[in-house]
Design brief:
The chain is mainly beta. The chain contains three helices and 13 strands; from the N terminus they run αββαβββββββββββα. It has one domain.
Length: 206
Protein backbone atom coordinates (compact mmCIF):
# COMPACT_ATOMS: atom_id res chain seq x y z
CA UNK A 1 0.00 0.00 0.00
CA UNK A 2 1.31 3.39 -0.97
CA UNK A 3 2.02 5.80 1.86
CA UNK A 4 3.08 9.35 1.14
CA UNK A 5 5.54 11.74 2.73
CA UNK A 6 3.20 12.80 5.53
CA UNK A 7 3.36 9.32 7.01
CA UNK A 8 7.14 9.33 6.90
CA UNK A 9 7.34 12.66 8.66
CA UNK A 10 5.17 11.35 11.47
CA UNK A 11 7.51 8.38 11.77
CA UNK A 12 10.47 10.69 12.15
CA UNK A 13 12.28 9.58 9.02
CA UNK A 14 11.79 12.71 6.96
CA UNK A 15 11.88 16.44 7.47
CA UNK A 16 9.53 18.48 5.30
CA UNK A 17 10.14 21.86 3.65
CA UNK A 18 13.31 22.80 5.48
CA UNK A 19 14.32 26.22 4.20
CA UNK A 20 18.05 26.33 3.44
CA UNK A 21 18.31 29.88 2.18
CA UNK A 22 16.55 33.19 2.64
CA UNK A 23 17.03 34.32 -0.96
CA UNK A 24 14.16 34.72 -3.44
CA UNK A 25 15.32 31.49 -5.10
CA UNK A 26 15.80 29.69 -1.80
CA UNK A 27 16.50 25.98 -1.80
CA UNK A 28 13.96 23.87 0.06
CA UNK A 29 14.42 20.31 1.30
CA UNK A 30 11.23 18.39 0.62
CA UNK A 31 12.37 14.97 1.81
CA UNK A 32 15.30 13.92 3.98
CA UNK A 33 15.33 10.22 4.74
CA UNK A 34 16.64 6.91 3.42
CA UNK A 35 16.27 4.60 0.45
CA UNK A 36 14.51 2.16 2.79
CA UNK A 37 11.95 4.76 3.87
CA UNK A 38 11.22 5.52 0.22
CA UNK A 39 10.86 1.84 -0.62
CA UNK A 40 8.49 1.29 2.30
CA UNK A 41 6.40 4.34 1.38
CA UNK A 42 6.23 3.44 -2.28
CA UNK A 43 5.77 7.06 -3.35
CA UNK A 44 6.92 10.42 -2.01
CA UNK A 45 4.98 13.58 -2.86
CA UNK A 46 7.69 16.26 -2.93
CA UNK A 47 6.30 19.61 -4.02
CA UNK A 48 4.50 19.01 -7.30
CA UNK A 49 6.54 15.87 -8.04
CA UNK A 50 5.52 12.33 -7.22
CA UNK A 51 8.64 10.15 -6.87
CA UNK A 52 7.66 6.46 -7.04
CA UNK A 53 10.19 3.81 -6.04
CA UNK A 54 10.79 1.02 -8.53
CA UNK A 55 13.70 -1.25 -7.60
CA UNK A 56 17.24 -1.01 -6.27
CA UNK A 57 20.05 -3.06 -4.80
CA UNK A 58 21.41 -0.11 -2.80
CA UNK A 59 21.50 -0.50 0.98
CA UNK A 60 18.24 0.64 2.56
CA UNK A 61 20.22 2.82 4.96
CA UNK A 62 21.66 5.04 2.23
CA UNK A 63 20.66 8.69 2.50
CA UNK A 64 18.04 10.17 0.15
CA UNK A 65 17.40 13.91 -0.13
CA UNK A 66 14.93 15.57 -2.50
CA UNK A 67 15.03 19.34 -2.77
CA UNK A 68 14.24 22.27 -5.02
CA UNK A 69 16.60 24.99 -6.22
CA UNK A 70 17.08 27.54 -8.97
CA UNK A 71 14.81 30.29 -10.23
CA UNK A 72 11.34 29.96 -8.66
CA UNK A 73 12.47 26.58 -7.26
CA UNK A 74 11.66 24.86 -10.56
CA UNK A 75 14.76 22.64 -10.40
CA UNK A 76 14.24 19.37 -8.52
CA UNK A 77 17.27 17.44 -7.24
CA UNK A 78 17.31 13.86 -5.99
CA UNK A 79 20.53 13.11 -4.10
CA UNK A 80 21.73 9.71 -2.88
CA UNK A 81 24.64 9.45 -0.44
CA UNK A 82 26.16 6.01 0.07
CA UNK A 83 26.39 6.03 3.85
CA UNK A 84 25.48 2.33 4.20
CA UNK A 85 26.53 0.81 0.87
CA UNK A 86 30.28 0.28 0.60
CA UNK A 87 31.73 3.10 -1.51
CA UNK A 88 33.93 0.52 -3.24
CA UNK A 89 30.85 -1.31 -4.52
CA UNK A 90 31.46 -2.60 -8.06
CA UNK A 91 27.91 -2.01 -9.31
CA UNK A 92 24.41 -0.96 -8.28
CA UNK A 93 21.13 0.18 -9.79
CA UNK A 94 18.22 2.43 -8.83
CA UNK A 95 14.99 2.65 -10.82
CA UNK A 96 12.05 4.98 -10.14
CA UNK A 97 9.56 7.30 -11.83
CA UNK A 98 8.87 11.03 -11.50
CA UNK A 99 5.48 12.55 -12.26
CA UNK A 100 4.65 16.26 -12.44
CA UNK A 101 1.35 16.69 -10.62
CA UNK A 102 0.94 20.43 -11.22
CA UNK A 103 -1.11 21.04 -14.38
CA UNK A 104 0.56 23.11 -17.07
CA UNK A 105 4.19 22.14 -16.31
CA UNK A 106 6.56 19.74 -18.03
CA UNK A 107 10.10 18.51 -17.36
CA UNK A 108 12.30 19.90 -20.15
CA UNK A 109 15.87 19.10 -19.05
CA UNK A 110 17.70 16.55 -16.91
CA UNK A 111 21.10 16.32 -15.24
CA UNK A 112 23.37 13.63 -13.82
CA UNK A 113 26.34 14.02 -11.49
CA UNK A 114 28.40 11.75 -9.25
CA UNK A 115 31.05 12.16 -6.57
CA UNK A 116 33.93 9.72 -6.92
CA UNK A 117 37.52 9.19 -5.84
CA UNK A 118 39.71 11.30 -8.13
CA UNK A 119 42.52 8.74 -7.86
CA UNK A 120 40.37 5.74 -8.73
CA UNK A 121 39.82 4.27 -12.22
CA UNK A 122 36.97 5.67 -14.29
CA UNK A 123 33.71 4.87 -12.54
CA UNK A 124 30.71 4.91 -14.91
CA UNK A 125 27.20 5.94 -13.86
CA UNK A 126 24.61 5.78 -16.63
CA UNK A 127 21.13 7.20 -16.17
CA UNK A 128 18.26 6.94 -18.62
CA UNK A 129 15.43 9.48 -18.40
CA UNK A 130 12.73 8.03 -20.70
CA UNK A 131 14.74 7.88 -23.97
CA UNK A 132 17.44 10.39 -22.94
CA UNK A 133 20.61 8.70 -21.65
CA UNK A 134 23.33 10.52 -19.69
CA UNK A 135 26.67 9.10 -18.54
CA UNK A 136 28.87 10.38 -15.72
CA UNK A 137 32.42 9.03 -16.15
CA UNK A 138 34.86 9.62 -13.33
CA UNK A 139 32.51 12.10 -11.67
CA UNK A 140 31.80 14.24 -14.73
CA UNK A 141 28.43 16.09 -14.80
CA UNK A 142 26.08 15.68 -17.76
CA UNK A 143 23.17 17.92 -18.75
CA UNK A 144 20.71 17.45 -21.62
CA UNK A 145 17.28 18.43 -22.82
CA UNK A 146 14.56 15.85 -22.21
CA UNK A 147 13.22 15.07 -25.69
CA UNK A 148 10.33 15.23 -25.87
CA UNK A 149 9.42 17.21 -22.72
CA UNK A 150 7.19 15.17 -20.45
CA UNK A 151 5.13 15.17 -17.28
CA UNK A 152 6.18 11.56 -16.55
CA UNK A 153 9.78 10.33 -16.52
CA UNK A 154 11.06 6.79 -16.03
CA UNK A 155 14.52 6.97 -14.45
CA UNK A 156 17.04 4.13 -14.47
CA UNK A 157 20.47 4.48 -12.80
CA UNK A 158 23.17 1.88 -13.43
CA UNK A 159 26.66 2.07 -11.92
CA UNK A 160 29.81 0.10 -12.74
CA UNK A 161 33.35 0.50 -11.46
CA UNK A 162 36.51 -1.41 -12.27
CA UNK A 163 38.59 -2.74 -9.34
CA UNK A 164 39.63 0.20 -7.17
CA UNK A 165 36.67 2.36 -8.13
CA UNK A 166 34.91 4.35 -5.42
CA UNK A 167 31.71 6.42 -5.39
CA UNK A 168 30.22 8.28 -2.43
CA UNK A 169 27.18 10.06 -3.89
CA UNK A 170 25.18 10.77 -7.04
CA UNK A 171 22.46 13.15 -8.11
CA UNK A 172 19.57 13.09 -10.60
CA UNK A 173 18.13 16.52 -11.41
CA UNK A 174 15.09 17.76 -13.28
CA UNK A 175 13.94 21.16 -14.52
CA UNK A 176 10.37 22.01 -15.34
CA UNK A 177 8.82 25.03 -17.03
CA UNK A 178 5.25 26.04 -17.94
CA UNK A 179 4.15 24.19 -21.08
CA UNK A 180 4.06 27.29 -23.35
CA UNK A 181 7.79 27.71 -22.65
CA UNK A 182 8.83 24.18 -23.63
CA UNK A 183 9.66 25.48 -27.09
CA UNK A 184 12.53 27.33 -25.39
CA UNK A 185 13.90 24.10 -23.96
CA UNK A 186 17.38 24.39 -25.46
CA UNK A 187 17.97 27.88 -24.12
CA UNK A 188 16.44 26.91 -20.80
CA UNK A 189 18.78 23.95 -20.41
CA UNK A 190 21.83 26.11 -21.03
CA UNK A 191 20.62 28.80 -18.64
CA UNK A 192 19.78 26.56 -15.71
CA UNK A 193 22.98 24.57 -16.02
CA UNK A 194 24.79 27.28 -14.10
CA UNK A 195 22.67 26.87 -10.97
CA UNK A 196 21.28 23.35 -11.27
CA UNK A 197 23.39 21.60 -8.65
CA UNK A 198 23.08 22.08 -4.95
CA UNK A 199 26.64 20.93 -4.24
CA UNK A 200 29.20 23.69 -3.92
CA UNK A 201 32.76 22.65 -4.61
CA UNK A 202 31.78 19.14 -5.66
CA UNK A 203 35.34 18.18 -6.44
CA UNK A 204 36.03 14.52 -6.92
CA UNK A 205 37.28 13.47 -3.55
CA UNK A 206 39.68 11.02 -2.03
Amino acid sequence: MTKLLQNLALAGVASVATVLSASSAQAVVLFNGTIGAWEDAGSIQAGDKLFTFGASDLNRGDSLVIETAGIDNLDYLLNVNLIATETTVSSFFLDYTVEVTQPGYQIVAVDLDSTVDVFAPDEVLTTTYNTTTLTSIGGSPELEQLIPPSTFVEVSNSYFAPPGGEISAFENSFQQVPEPLTILGAGTAIAFGTHFKRKSGKANKK
